[in-house]
Amino acid sequence: MTYYQAFIDNTFVDASDGARMDVFDPATGAVWAHVPACTPNDVARAIATSARAQKDWQMLPPQTRADYIYKIADGIERERDLLEELLVMEQGKSRAEAAGEVTDTIRYMTYAAESARRIQGEILPSDRPNEQLYIYRVPYGVTLGLCAYNYPLALIGRKAGPALVAGNTMIIKPHEATPVTASVFCKICKDAGLPAGVINMVTGTGKDVGAPLVESPTVRMITLTGSIRAGQMIMEAAAKNLTALSLELGGSAPFIVLKDADIDAAAEAAVVARFANAGQVCICNEAVLVEESVADAFTAKLLEKVKSVKVGDPKTNGGMGPITTPDALARVEKIVADSVAGGAKIAAGGKRPDGAAFATGNWYEPTVLVDATAETAAVVEEIFGPVLPIVRVKDYEDALRIANARPDGLSAYLWTQNPSIYMDAIKRLETGTIFLNSGITGLVNGYHNGHKLSGLGGEDGIHGFEGYMQKRTVYMSY
């Protein structure tokens, strides 16, 4: 067993009452590490430390703050092997996917550091003589980073990098299932010489740790990656203090394939975009909407490509690993059962893999459901697991109607060679990101945000960076 501590005021600490939480290996279900089960008293210490440190931190030149971020990014690279191993152990992704996550984390951090010299204000003319109007961008103060379990390290880099460069301090609250890499990240911050209190990290439950953090009047900005329900609860809890929010929430991305699409390329992209990280990606392909005239050909090609998705121990297998938590696995199983009860048919997978290696842990086969409709449970719900329903549609308008009828709108895929259609889709698809004839991807200089119930604010790029600052207007007479 290995014990990874929380991090408060530049010191690794136990919970104030000594309590600990188990960390489970998704591949085996075995306990392999422990972390502190922090208390509200620990949260109060973290908040006080963050507030104290922020006063000095914001007074540093942005480039000085950025220099610390560069050092942290260098530290992440030095600890790459360890971080990859830990991501495999706690989250269940393959070693190749873990390597990609470490690389993405470094990119998030370095992009944020590069943004230090791009913090811009505005100078505006006044209506009165001898007066100048200025608009400054200033930090919020203490910020809170709430991270999901699907990318335990990358989400920290995505949030902490821009928050710190902008002049905020941040308290990190990792998901209960994946807290280990957060502790190692804090060690890297300490080794980089980051001033005490600029980064704090507390582990524990939503009740004992998450709630007092969200409800604190000292926390002035909250950034969450999580489910729609989690975002709604946090928004409600933060309302009393009118805390600023950036909520990157879930969504059920439609993968629209029209009759003029490159069927081979679309089928390949559909498989990768569904089964990457065992389907635990917020912008994953959640449901194929394929035009009837090419539905049979597309489905056949997709099913053939699904056979190539290897399932096995993520420590040694380069394919698909387990689902991260038992609760998530149970949810996937229920959605599949409800879908079959509603008339869908299992064309591939649909159960735990056979063999002794899969007897324990959170395993589920790559699964394809055919004869699905817009009312099928696997189409209505965000699956967040390795299950792909296929729905036949009449045409583009039918697919657009189904896609836009959803209450969420995080991402969507559209495969067509018709410029009139994809230009129309840019205007009419109610979603934050559209992948046109493209597979799943994401760049640090883009913008990752949702429409409708998929969230407020967003991450990445210049717009994500500016989300960690508020505006201050100055009228200066002279």
TrEMBL record:
UniProt name for this protein: Lactaldehyde dehydrogenase / glycolaldehyde dehydrogenase
GO cellular component: cytosol
Gene Ontology terms, MF aspect: succinate-semialdehyde dehydrogenase (NAD+) activity
Protein family: Belongs to the aldehyde dehydrogenase family.
Keyword Transferase: no
Keyword Transport belongs to the record: no
GO biological process: gamma-aminobutyric acid catabolic process
Ranges of residues in domain Aldehyde dehydrogenase: 13-474
PROSITE patterns (alphabetical): ALDEHYDE_DEHYDR_CYS
Keyword list, A-Z: Oxidoreductase
InterPro entries from the UniProt entry: Ald_DH/histidinol_DH, Ald_DH_C, Ald_DH_CS_CYS, Ald_DH_N, Aldehyde_DH_dom, Aldehyde_DH_Superfamily
